[in-house]
Design goal:
The protein is of the alpha/beta class and about 160 residues long. It contains seven helices and six strands; from the N terminus they run βαβαβαβαααββα. It has one domain: Flavodoxin domain (Rossmann fold), CATH 3.40.50. Helices cover about 40% and strands about 20% of the residues. Helix 1 runs parallel beside helix 7. The site of flavin mononucleotide (FMN) has 19 residues, from helix 1 and strand 4.
C-alpha cells in the first residue's frame, strides 16, 4: 500500500507522533511536513494520514492551507485519517478554556471532515495525542498510543 504521512509541527511534538505513525504503518513510509507535500505527491497514494498541532482550537495555518488548496476529488477513494496534538483541558484546569474546548474542540475532527469532503474514505476516528505543555513534552505513553492508532488504520 502506498501511504503518505503529512504533518505540521512548531515544537516537534506532532513531528514525533507523525514519525511514530509512519514507522508503524510500514517500512519506508514517507513522512513529510505538510508544507512540502505537493499535489503530485498525492497522486497514486492509497492512504493519507494528516497530523497537526491544535492551535486556537483548530489545525495550524499550514495544515489548513494544505487542506484548502487540495484539488476537489484529489483524495477520491483514498483512505484517510487525521490526528492532532493538544493540551488536556481537564489537566489545564481553566474553566474558561474547558468551556471553549466544549464549543470549538480540537483540530483532528475538522481535518478529517475536510479530507472526507475531498473524496477521502475515513479509516479511523480522529485522534488526539496529549502534550503536557504548549512546547511539550508528549504525555508518557502517547507515542505507544499513536502506534496503536496507526495499527488500527491498517486493520
Ligand atoms: C498559540 C497556541 C495556541 C494553542 N491553542 C491550543 C488549543 O486551542 N487547544 C489545545 O489543546 N492546545 C493548544 N495549544 C497547545 C498546542 O496544541 C501544542 O503547542 C502542540 O500540541 C505542540 O505540538 P508541536 O510541538 O507539534 O507544535 C496551543 C499552543 C499555542 C502556542
Amino acid at each position: 500500500m502506498n501511504i503518505l504521512v503529512a504533518y505540521d509541527s512548531y515544537f516537534g511534538n506532532t513531528e514525533k507522533v507523525a514519525y511514530k505513525i509512519g514507522e508503524t504503518l510500514g517500512e519506508n513510509v514517507p513522512v513529510h511536513r505538510v508544507q512540502d507535500v505537493s499535489s503530485d505527491m498525492l497522486n497514486g497514494i492509497d492512504m493519507l494520514v494528516l497530523g497537526s498541532p491544535t492551535r486556537a482550537f483548530k489545525a495550524s495555518d499550514a495544515t489548513n492551507a494544505f487542506l484548502k488548496k487540495l484539488p476537489k476529488d484529489q483524495l477520491k477513494g483514498v483512505k484517510v485519517a487525521a490526528f492532532d496534538t493538544r493540551m488536556d483541558e481537564v489537566k489545564v484546569g481553566n474553566p474558561v478554556l474547558k468551556f471553549m474546548v466544549g464549543i470549538f474542540g480540537y483540530a483532528a475532527k475538522p481535518m478529517a471532515e475536510k479530507l472526507v469532503k475531498n473524496g477521502g474514505v475515513l479509516v479511523g476516528e480522529p485522534a488526539g495525542f496529549i502534550v503536557l505543555d504548549s512546547e511539550g513534552p508528549l504525555q508518557e505513553g502517547e507515542l505507544e498510543r499513536a502506534a496503536e492508532w496507526a495499527k488500527s488504520l491498517l486493520a
